[in-house]
């Protein structure tokens, strides 16, 4: 039997087929039908389902169930998306709608949790009992694996690692609070700090820093210091075996990882610091995680 997973984003809806050995066999994507309502989203998911069955030479009887990952807060028990602003989903009974459309059991998961589950199942966190995934992009996302299981929050609200307050009264965050880790450790921070010098985006800042530009190096070193403080705080709270970092900034490779590891080790309370590695599931993480929760 195989499982189907959907990664429903505000730009595209991606879907894939995972076999019993957790191999991603096939994947497809279609544009998100922005402004057309949830019924149009369900229709796109149906189309992707048909394409995947055809590509993988499967019948509906070969599919045990499906999972869907969405960027927002969810009610796990009832399969409802409480709020996913990028999708314009608000108290949307997505599981029920997909279940009727696919005639299969459907499970729901937050996209950051799906990525953490994927890394723990088949990626950089495989084999760990306590580990952390942090994704560094426009914002900060991530998930926690505690005692070998995905931690969905003590009350089921999930976790928001990007909105831990790193600097009291600090930089404004998009969530409306000041000083969140996201305001200091996301790629957006590099882009904002680099803009006055004519650099467009985090990659240009990193490239200029690598080439030795003193202004870029100053921006990059402060970013590493703030990211190190953030990760060290997570280490001191949770004592994880491993931290995986995902997102475009990881393209910097050792230029980022070497000083970051050193910075975290200097701030770590414990005698030994956990491994800090690059996440390996990439853009497939949401699909894989959604498949893993499917029945």
Walk me through this protein's architecture.
The radius of gyration is 20 Å and the shape is globular. The chain has helices spanning 38-55, 94-102, 111-122, 181-185, 187-194, 202-210, 214-238, 254-267, 285-293, and strands at residues 2-8, 12-18, 24-31, 63-70, 73-75, 80-84, 89-92, 106-110, 131-136, 140-146, 149-151, 242-246, 275-278. The chain folds into two domains: 2-110 and 284-293, Nucleotidyltransferase, domain 5 (2-Layer Sandwich); 124-279, Nucleotidyltransferase, domain 5. The relative contact order is 0.16. It is α/β, with parallel strands linked by helices and 295 residues long. The strands form three sheets. The protein has a five-stranded mixed sheet, sandwiched between helices. Helix 6 crosses helix 7 (214-238) and helix 7 packs across helix 8. The protein contains nine helices and 13 strands. The chain starts with a strand and ends with a helix. It is 37% helix and 24% strand.
Strand runs, count: 13
What is the CATH architecture assignment of the largest domain?
2-Layer Sandwich
What structural class is derived from the secondary structure elements? alpha/beta
The radius of gyration computed from the alpha-carbon positions, rounded to a whole number of angstroms, is: 20 Å
Per CATH, the superfamily of the largest domain is ATPase, nucleotide binding domain
Number of helices: 9
């Amino acid at each position: 039997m195989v499982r189907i997973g959907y990664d429903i984003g505000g730009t595209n809806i991606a879907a894939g087929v995972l076999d019993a050995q957790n191999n991603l066999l096939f994947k497809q994507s279609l544009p998100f039908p922005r402004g057309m309502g949830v019924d149009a989203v369900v229709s796109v998911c149906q189309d992707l389902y048909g394409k995947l069955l055809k590509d993988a030479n499967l019948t509906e009887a070969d599919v045990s169930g499906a999972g869907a990952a969405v960027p927002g807060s969810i009610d796990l028990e009832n399969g409802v998306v409480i709020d996913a602003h990028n999708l314009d989903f608000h108290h949307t009974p997505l599981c029920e709608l997909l279940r009727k459309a696919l005639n299969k059991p459907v499970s729901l998961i937050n996209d950051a949790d799906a990525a953490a589950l994927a890394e723990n199942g088949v990626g950089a966190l495989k084999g760990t009992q306590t580990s952390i995934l942090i994704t560094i992009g426009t914002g900060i996302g991530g998930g926690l694996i505690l005692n070998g299981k995905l931690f969905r929050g003590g009350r089921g609200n999930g976790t928001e690692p990007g909105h831990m307050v790193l600097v009291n009264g600090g930089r404004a965050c998009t969530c409306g609070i000041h000083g969140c880790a996201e305001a200091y450790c996301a790629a957006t921070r590099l882009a904002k700090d680099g803009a006055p010098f004519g650099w467009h985006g985090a990659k240009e800042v990193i490239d200029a820093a690598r080439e030795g530009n003193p202004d870029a190096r100053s921006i990059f070193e402060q970013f590493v210091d703030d990211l190190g403080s953030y990760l060290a705080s997570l280490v001191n709270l949770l004592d994880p075996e491993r931290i995986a970092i995902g997102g475009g900034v990881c393209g910097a490779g050792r230029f980022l990882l070497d000083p970051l590891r050193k910075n975290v080790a200097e701030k770590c309370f414990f005698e030994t610091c956990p491994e800090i590695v690059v996440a390996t599931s990439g853009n497939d993480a949401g699909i894989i995680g959604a498949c893993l929760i499917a029945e």
